[in-house]
Each structure stands twice: as C-alpha cells, then as structure tokens.
Amino acid sequence: MTDAKRHFDREPDLGVSPRFAEDLGELFASQEAVPDSVDRAIAEAARRHLRRSPRKLRWLRWSVPAAAAAAILVGISLWWFPGGTGPRMAQNVSPQIALEGSSQADIDQNGKVDILDAFILARHIEAKQPVERTWDLNGDGLVDRRDVDAAAQAAVRLGKGV
Amino acid sequence: MKRYVLPSLILICVAITLLAPAVGRADRVIDKKVRFAPLHVYLDSGDKALAAYQFELKARPGSIKIVGVEGGEHPAFKEAPYYDPAALMNDQIIIAAFNTGSDLPQGRTRIATIHLQITGETDPDYQLELIVAGDAEGQDLPAELTLKRGASR
C-alpha cells in the first residue's frame, strides 16, 4: 500500500461536536402535536367547501322536479281541454257585395228578400225586358248578371232575419 | 344532491301515471266524437216544375260544422247553390238556387248535399225550414222539404 492510497483506508472521523449535535437537534426536532380540535375544524371546513355545489349543479338539481311539475301541469290541461282550440273562422265575415239595404234587393216588392227576387231579375235580364235603375245593386251603372248574384247573396246572407 | 333524487323520481312516476292514460283517452275521445257525414236535402214539388228554392238548415249549436255544399241531382240544380260563406264552419246555413231554363225537375228531387262535421256520438237534431220554392213564373210553389242522412266517415 502506497502512501497515496493509505489515507483512504482510514475511517473518516464522523464525530461531531456536542454543540453542533445540539444545534441540529433543535433545528430538526419534531414540532408539537396538532390538537384534535384543530384537526376536526379543518376537516369540517373542507367538507363544507366540497359540499357546496357550483351554480350549474344547483340548476340541474331543480330542473328535474321542475320538469316533472311542468309535465303534471300539461297533463292536467290535456285532461281538462282534450279537444284543444283550433283556429275558428270569423263569423259574420262574408265577401259578398255590400248592399245599401236589403230592401233594394226586394225586386218583387213583397217585403222580403229571397231567391225569387234574384230569379225575377235574371228573367228580366235574359228576356231583355226593361229594368229599373234601382236594380243596379252593385252600383256599377249596369243591371246585369252581377246584380242577380248580389240579390241572391243578399237572400242567403246569415243574420238578415229573413 | 342525493336527497333530491328520490323526490324527483317520485314526481316523474306520478307524472307518467297521470299523463299516460290522459293522453290516450284524449286521442280516443277525439277519434270517437268527430265524424263527417253528408246530409242530402230533397224537395218534392209535386207535379209542378221547380225553378227556384231557398231553405235554412240549423242544428244545435256546437253539434255540427258545415264544411261544404254541393248541388243537386237534376242538371238544373247541379251547380253549387248560393250560400253565405260565413256559414262554413258554422251550424246554420241558408241555401238557395234558381234556374231560368225550361228543363226543370218535378216531383221529389235531391236539390243539395251539405257536408257536415258532426261532434258527438248521437245524430244532431236538424231544423230544416223551406223559405220559398218557386215555379217557372216566379210564383210561390207549395213543396215539401225532407232530408236524408248519408253514411258517416
């Protein structure tokens, strides 16, 4: 063994001074134990935090009962109104030619307007017999088939009290 | 969250229990109660030629809706008669027609067919009133008005 290698064979001196050992001991000594009450408080706070759901989840939570309640309401309304309400044509709406008065269409002057007034007017026109100006029911200056139609429409009009 | 699951499930079950029979019954009710049927109107003018007619048909409100009108069987009245368009989808109508020609029907003839939407299981009571019937001279004609119910669909 050479002198150069001899110093590796010697055991290193691991001994520390008592003062240094004492300082290390103070530095790394285990701290005082956490009381149980503090542990419980921290755990409870954590549980509370985790239990609090985000707003989205809150909406989701109520959506199911809300949907069920809406379904019940729809069911009840279907129960009470099974026929539904469809579109209904307006009453008293007629495209017929407006007459100044029903009496104007009373061609035969019998006090009522019926299909015979239109019939008589039609026969007058077809036979080219003289016509009266009052028979121009649609006011176009002519007494023709359109006045016959106007008289017939006046006869069948609802709510005229035939 | 878990505590809302059970009430929600109960609510859903209740809703299904209520809705399922109600919806089914509503369909069945609609199917049963609404039907369509023609109503044939006949006029008997005896041995006189019929040149013009006018009548009114009524039914109990809500029992029928008039959905269409067509003419009669004789060529003189084959065209659609006069009526107020406001009568469609209503339960009352006045119908009239005339013909100035020489080929006119005599005796009993179908003058019009009214197509109805009928609501309810029973046949409605119809009120049929002849307002006027006229001959070829435009004179009042004694006549009898009758109706015949067609097959409903």
Outline the structure in words.
The complex is a heterodimer of chains A (162) and B (153). Chain A is mostly helical. Among the domains of chain A are: 37-76; 102-156, Orthogonal Bundle (Type 1 dockerin domain). Helix content of chain A is 51%, strand content 0%. Chain A contains six helices and no strands. In chain A, helix 5 (115-126) packs antiparallel against helix 6 (145-156). The longest helix of chain A has 26 residues, at 55-80. The relative contact order of chain A is 0.08. Chain B has a single domain, classed as Sandwich (Immunoglobulin-like), CATH 2.60.40.680. Helix content of chain B is 21%, strand content 41%. Chain B has one helix spanning 2-33; strands at 34-44, 52-59, 64-70, 82-83, 92-98, 108-119, 126-134, 144-149. A four-stranded antiparallel sheet of chain B has the order 3-6-1-8. The radius of gyration of chain B is 24 Å and the shape is rod-shaped. The termini of chain B are far apart. Classes of the chains: A mainly alpha (162), B alpha+beta (153).
Give me some keywords for this one.
heterodimer, A: 162 residues, mainly alpha, Type 1 dockerin domain, 6 helices, 0% strand, B: 153 residues, alpha+beta, Immunoglobulin-like, four-stranded antiparallel sheet, 21% helix, 41% strand, rod-shaped
Distance between the termini of chain A: 147 Å
What portion of the residues of chain B fall into strands of 2 or more residues? 35-45%
Mean pLDDT of chain B: 86
Q: Assembly state here?
A: heterodimer
